[in-house]
Amino acid sequence: MITFITHDGKFSVTSHGNGWAYEVTERSTGDSFWVQDQDADQLQADTNDFEWTEPLFDYLEALT
Q1: Is there a contact between 15 and 6 (Cβ–Cβ < 8 Å)?
Q2: CA separation for the pair 51, 44 (Å, rounded)
Q3: Which residue in 12, 26, 41, 54 has the fewest CB atoms around it within 10 Å?
Q4: For residue 64, what pLDDT is reported?
Q5: Into how many domains does the chain fold?
Q6: Helix (H, G, I), strand (E, B) or coil at 46
């Protein structure tokens, strides 16, 4: 398990199993979501390896 902060400081991302799953937490609100398997691969691709955080806000918005 590895946790890192996105370059803009808005999210913490915990990687499980070398990218098998991710728990993503918005640091200002504490809201989080979890993806695994193909969804984890897609999230990593959508965010350009977590360099672009806008899709992370989209995921959170879709869950509310």
Answers
A1: no
A2: 9
A3: 54
A4: 73
A5: 1
A6: helix
